[in-house]
């Protein structure tokens, strides 16, 4: 699966999971999700830096 189709599928699943949420719950969920995504990206970048440093 390409990253474009994976992103579309992820967005579709999130839309399905949040369709019945009220505004407050939806905003909370999306902010928590964004924070989790940022943390995951940061950890991956850190892991790449650590692996690169160990190989020097």
Which H/E pattern describes the elements? HH
Percent helix, as a range, is over 70%
Q: Indicate the radius of gyration in whole angstroms.
A: 16 Å
| Unreliable runs | none
Strand content: under 5%
* Residue-averaged pLDDT: 91
The shape is: elongated
Instruction: Report how far the terminal alpha carbons are from each other.
Output: 34 Å
Structural class label = mainly alpha
- Main beta sheet strand tally, sense and closure: none
Query: Treating each run of at least 4 consecutive H or I residues as one helix, how many helices?
Result: 2
Strand tally, please?
0
Task: Please explain how this structure is put together.
- The protein is mostly helical and 56 residues long.
- Helix content is 86%, strand content 0%.
- It is built from two helices and no strands.
- The protein has helices at 3-18, 23-54.
- The relative contact order is 0.07.
What would a concise description of this structure say?
This protein has 56 residues and is mostly helical.
């Amino acid at each position: 699966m390409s990253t474009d189709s994976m992103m579309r599928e992820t967005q579709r699943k999130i839309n399905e999971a949040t369709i019945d949420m009220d505004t407050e719950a939806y905003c909370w969920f999306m902010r928590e999700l964004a924070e989790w995504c940022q943390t995951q990206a940061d950890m991956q970048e850190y892991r790449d830096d650590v692996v690169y440093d160990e190989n020097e």
